[in-house]
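User: Show me a protein chain along with its predicted structure.
Assistant: Here is one chain, sequence first, then structure tokens.
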Amino acid sequence: MIPRYSRPDMVAIWSPETKFRIWYEIEAHACDAQADLGVIPRANADAVWRAKDVEFDVARIDEIEAVTKHDVIAFLTHLAEHVGADDARFVHQGMTSSDVLDTTLNVQLVRASDLLLKGMDRVLEALKTRAFEHKDTVRIGRSHGIHAEPTTMGLTFARFYAEMARGKSRLEAAREEIRTGAISGAVGTFANIDPAVEEHVCAKMGLLPEPISTQVIPRDRHAMFFATLGVIASSIENIAIEVRHMQRTEVLEAEEFFSPGQKGSSAMPHKRNPVLTENLTGLARLVRMSVVPAMENVALWHERDISHSSVERAIGPDTTITLDFALHRLAGVIEKLVIYPDNMLANMNKFRGLVMSQRVLLALTQAGVSREDSYRLVQRNAMKVWEQGADFKTELLGDAEVTAALSPAEIEEKFDLGYHTKHVDTIFKRVFG
């Protein structure tokens, strides 16, 4: 991923230096297990560990690979240059390249998950803080982009909190799904390596042994992982779209923090654009872009082919790096989001009481008017508000058919804003406990 949308800690997980360090640890732990089993001399295993402080030369490995056309062999050749040819002769005993590659990939995905979970925790904390801050800040709810009924800004934040909390639970499950390793040799039969080696290596690397592998770890695990990242990205976009809507000039119920010296447009000095949330919408697309290829990686030929390999070299780092960046960008947006309660109230009152139409409809039915007639009476007065700018309550009070069923006091009571917020505490208890 390009540096513009990257954070150093996540980038480091996918660096060649980190990859080769994990490869080395897998090979060294495997040698330990082989020595414990008496398959190789203990002295050879110890010799491999004496290279633990070596900084592997990425350029040298690339140079060897240019000849071998095989990345794992290139690494093993370079390792032998440090360990010594004789001491290194038992390295990779009974193993196949996928044992190293797949186990390493899953170590990296687990580490990436841990960083992503920290990012989600920051988002959740920001959403919770703003939810309680604006629990009772009334704003209009919208359906189809049209004014519906009153809600609160706190409920908007709480809704997003609940969604992201579900995302965190899914990511925790996906982390567990991907937390397996395989040191099972060619086609996964353990013919040339004892299953105890796999158990030892996985324990040391923080993984669980894959119950049954072929020459690769089954890719349905990875499909689940990347699909989960795609859902989280969609939740990020869901929040970003709401902020972008609220920042529209004719709405302006909230806006991204605009820092001193920030410029919104090269042409129009007045502009304050929702650039961060627009960026998040785009980044969400990049994350979701990995989902279909990950799904297509599940179907491999027989015990193994490498059609998945090129895909994962791209989507592994790119997707986790992008989502990591997006989570922290989203958290920053929420933490600094500027809220305009007065504008929310003004927007809600723009159509002069129209948002209380359902209360009047229900009151008429409860007063004995049929639902069809109740709807007709309310709608004909509501249309005057839409088309003539009339006041809804005034029109209702002047409608003889309405006042025949409801007294002026009963009509007045239907415009009490508190009616719509009376269960906010109940909802908050459900969301936050």
